[in-house]
Design brief:
single chain; alpha+beta; Immunoglobulin-like; 4-stranded antiparallel β-sheet; rod-shaped
Length: about 450
């Protein structure tokens, strides 16, 4: 009985075993589906827009963009004759040729353990979106010293990242010499992809220029109190600002100051990038106008407001005007006087006769003196000075000190008559002497 059972088990093993083995090997070796995974000679590592040396940020509508798949030869033998076919979703097409598949070749032999790449060229539709997409690829290859071709399939995801576009500008591009200026620089991401870990550094600062080189930036001639800034993340379409103080000497007046900035950041692929930008400033001369010694004097019996204007900067003020205007309940008439240039360190006097709107009002008046002028860029600038002045009644002084012609008119007439009489008497006397001599 036991012998018969043993013979039956052996028969089952010999009959059913080969059938099970064929079914198992059939499931492993059927290789037409891209969704199957089996052990092979090549392994997928990564896929992205760009080349093996540099990943690229891309936008919908970009054409002839390299698309690279990184692959490793994980087998024990070298492989050759490597060709790839790439299947991308709707919105992506081959730059050359037609059809849904995009092809690429690897011209060299991939040694065992070596990483190699296949680069395809793709056109991206304008209707594509900035997001992640699925894709499939098939790799054909042959082992060295072995006849026949092999292939493998794999699925992966890739991303249309968008592009980051970084710009810098000064919110106010003008600086003044002879003083400290507070500067605000705007760094903007005008693209469609975010950037992170942004750091900004001022280049060509003091001490970085060799003794034999000539600077074109002039950064070494000014004093900047900061040179490095941590900005952080800048989302697409947004801006960040950085601020610093800079002192500009008088010798930099009417010159351009160029500030080179180095920007380091992580792009949409997570890779660190560095680029340079230059922010330009124009240095204006300083016009520092002061109005002082405002007073009232009597000029030819009329009240006149006088004062002086001094320019303590390093640039002349052009096309100068002085305006007197009333404040509060003052009825002084608004008057403007042209004073031409306000030169450096040389006081410019002004005198404005006082006129009234309506009846004269004497006593205290609140007034405003405004100096209006232009700089070398023809920007119009106003400097105001508010004060209180006392306007006296000048007519009383005129009456007291005036000469009354009517009061002395009779004496004048008598004097004229006496003068005429004296002249006539002299003439008559002279004639008598002449007639006496003749006779």
């Amino acid at each position: 009985m036991k012998l018969q059972l043993f013979i039956f088990v052996l028969a089952v093993i010999f009959i059913i075993g080969p059938i099970m083995y064929e079914n198992v090997t059939a499931q492993v070796s059927s290789g037409d589906s891209p969704f199957e995974r089996k052990f092979g000679d090549v392994k997928y590592l990564d896929a992205f827009f760009g080349t093996a040396d540099e990943k690229l940020e891309v936008n919908p509508g970009d054409k002839n963009v390299p698309f690279t798949i990184m692959i490793a030869n994980v087998g024990t033998q070298d492989i050759t004759g490597i060709k790839g076919q790439l299947s991308l979703p709707f919105g992506f097409s081959p730059t050359t040729g037609s059809g849904p598949l995009i092809e690429a070749d690897f011209d060299s032999t991939a040694l065992a353990g070596e990483v190699f790449e296949l680069t395809f060229f793709v056109d991206i539709s304008d209707q594509a979106e900035i997001k992640q997409y699925p894709a499939s690829a098939m790799i054909d290859y042959s082992r060295l010293r072995e006849s026949g071709a092999r292939n493998t399939f794999f699925d992966f995801n890739f991303k249309v990242t968008g592009k980051s576009v970084i710009n810098m500008r000064a919110l106010d591009p003008f600086l003044y010499s002879l003083q400290k200026n507070h500067v605000t620089i705007e760094i903007s991401n005008d693209g469609t992809a975010p950037i992170s870990g942004v750091k900004v550094g001022l280049q060509n600062a003091q001490g970085t220029i060799s003794s034999t080189s000539q600077s074109v930036t002039k950064v070494e001639n000014v004093v900047i109190l900061n040179s490095n800034w941590e900005v952080g993340q800048i989302a697409a379409g947004t801006t960040k600002t950085l601020e610093f103080d800079v002192y500009v000497p008088g010798s930099m007046s009417s010159q351009t100051l160029r500030t080179p900035m180095e920007i380091s950041y992580f792009n949409a692929h997570g890779e660190q990038s560095t680029l340079s930008r230059i922010v330009d400033f124009y240095v204006k001369g300083l016009i520092n106008v002061t109005i002082y010694d405002v007073n009232v004097i009597d000029l030819s019996g009329k009240p006149t407001i006088i004062g002086e204007i001094i320019n303590e900067g390093n640039e002349n003020a052009l096309f100068g005007f002085v305006t007197l205007e009333p404040l509060g309940d003052s009825n002084i008439k608004k008057t403007t006087q042209y004073i031409d240039e306000i030169e450096l360190d040389s006081p410019v006097p002004f005198n404005i006769p006082v006129e009234f709107v309506g009846e004269p009002k004497y006593g205290e008046h609140d007034i405003r003196i405004t100096a209006r002028y232009k700089n070398s860029l023809r920007d119009e600038i106003f400097k105001t000075y508010d004060t209180t002045v006392f306007i006296p009644d000048m007519t009383e002084n005129t009456k007291e000190s005036g000469f009354d012609l009517m009061e002395y008119s009779q004496y004048i007439v008598v004097g004229v008559i006496l003068l005429i009489g004296g002249i006539s008497f002299s003439q008559i006397k002279k004639r008598k002497k002449e007639s006496t001599k003749t006779s």
